[in-house]
Amino acid sequence: FTAPGQAQARLASQAGQIAFQFGMAEKQAETDKAKRDITALVDQEMSNWTRENLDTTVTGYQASAQTKKQQLEKSALENLRGSLTRRQFAEVTNTFNSTFATKVAQGSQIAHAKNMKIRTESADNYLENQYSELVSLDPNSDLFRVKTAEIGRQYDSFIAQGISPTKYQDRSSFFKTVDAGNFSRGVEAAGSQAQIDQMRKNLESLPASVFSARNTALDRRETVIQNELVETVFKQLIRIPDKDFTKEEVDKVVDQIRSGEVIDFKDADGNNVKFSLKDLKSSSTETLISRLRGRLQRKEGEEQNALLVALDAELYNENTTLADIVKFEEQL
After folding, report:
1. If you write DSSP's letter for every residue of 316-332 in order, what string do you get?
2. I need a labelling partner for 195 at 20 to 30 A (CA). Which of 66, 287, 304, 305 fits?
3. Which residues have a Cβ under 8 Å from the Cβ of 87 and sit 6 or more positions away?
4. Which of 240, 289, 248 is nearest to 266 (CA)?
């Protein structure tokens, strides 16, 4: 009976092992399901919570996340304690902590991105305000130098924080834009040929492409200034009484204009009018002279027309004598 007894013992042992393995497999299945469930729950809860979270710093987000963790531990994890063995609960707790840490790491990146967006917007606003101030200042003033030095320090801070301003990404682009803005403001404010000439001198050290664009802008402004000067002088000159607006007087003025002298006339009210014409360009000089001579021609034409009309009336007057006709001929 020894052999059959051993066989039965082996069968009993194998049956026990199978039952144990089956039981362990069931426990593992329970553990795996609990781990999957806690993973899904933490993932969903933290995704929703992070989406609605208003913290804009990593420190603030992580502090709030710890409070959220405590809430989840009470509402989800502790409910499983009674239905799991200590070993199962320990594994599920590890899964909870691991999943939560992963979600906090992802949320921290979102909070960091929010913070960087806020800092970038702040930097953009700061630079835009500084640009508006700098283009209204004299580039050679102490205040301008103080402000540019401070902006340089701010850019050092941007680099240290990893901030990349949207419009003025580096100090070089910012100061180039300020320089261009200063030039544009200067062109708009220029009201004399002397100012235009001075601005042209400042272009000599610039790159060819920049020189060309700015020189063109100065040409346009110079044309406006010259036209305004011609118009201003001419409007004053046409106010001179006709009796003083003779060919001799016009020729004298033309000589003065060509030499760039100061012209001096009396206006219709008897006031002295003086204009310095040294800033007139040659083309503007010829334009002014042409308009002056045109006015003189119109005046002479009007005088001749008036004389002819009077003569015509007298010739057809029945009381006109031969002596009168001879006198008219002498006047012509």
Report:
1. T-TT--HHHHHHHHHH-
2. 287
3. none
4. 240
CB proximity list for 16: less than 8 A, separation 6 or greater: none
For residue 85, CA distances in Å to 91, 173, 206, 270 come to 10, 66, 81, 116
Closest CA to 174 of 151, 158, 153, 156: 151
What gap in Å lies between CA 254 and CA 290, rounded to an integer? 10
Amino acid type, 73:
E
Per-residue tokens: 14: 């194998």
The two tokens of residue 140 are 């050679």
Q: Which two tokens stand for residue 28?
A: 């593992």
Q: What is the mean pLDDT of each run of 10 residues along the chain (332 residues)?
A: 63 59 71 92 94 92 95 88 88 94 95 93 96 92 95 95 93 94 91 87 89 94 86 70 75 79 65 70 82 76 71 70 72 64
Structure tokens that stand for 276 in this block: 């310095």
What local confidence, expressed as pLDDT, does residue 183 receive?
92
Residue 3 has phi, psi (to 5 degrees) of: -65, -50
CA–CA gap between residue 115 and residue 153 (Å, rounded): 21
Amino acid (one-letter) located at 38? I
Helix axes 208-237, 282-315, angle to 10 degrees: 30
Q: Which amino acid is at 12?
A: A
Closest among 156, 200, 147 to 178, alpha carbons compared: 147
Angle between helices 171-189 and 86-134 (to 10 degrees): 30
pLDDT one-digit tens code per residue, 107-149: 999 999 999 999 999 999 999 999 999 999 988 899 999 999 9
